[in-house]
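Thanks for the sequence, V.! I ran Lipoprotein right away. Repeating your input here for the record:
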Amino acid sequence: MKIKLTFSLCFIFYLLTSCASKYRVIEPEKIKYISKNEDDNVRIEYKYDLLHKKYRKKEEKKDIKLVAFKITNNTERDLMLGRDITIQFSDGKEAQIVDSKRVFEELKQEPGWYLFYLLLTPLNFYTTNSNGESSSSTPIGLILGPGLAAGNLLGASGANKNFEKELMLYDIYGMEIPKGKSKYGLLGIKSDSYETLNVKVKE
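Predicted structure:
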């Protein structure tokens, strides 16, 4: 009986600590950038470590780093990221940019997992009398299971929607950066570490 109770409590604790994560908006234009690099009058400022909780775990698991950028074009011509400008690692190797749609698909939360909360539905709370015998039971699982499942499904779906919206809004790959102007954006880079990034302007 004690083993069953302990298992049940551990299972409930696991589910309750696996709740859906909220998505914290990044807003690249409001970031205080520290890392910088410049080449041929084009400057990049960038920042890693943008995601939190479940999104961050996915980022580490999938070896995709989401990076915020401020790119300033101080040349006398309009430039396009991906055509005229490339992002490189410190060893000179060009960074593999991951399409924003793929970044979303790889790093989003999976709402379907929260249906496991329905396993709590049969849960009953038992009360005992002075003799230690069960006297009554309350089917708390009927409220707890569906309630947690629905709440987390909605929470994860809403967070994913905000995540996708910001990725698309700040997708700057293939975007033209006018001369004398700066653009802010988010780029997914295929990497298993937080490597130093450099900018390279093609001749």
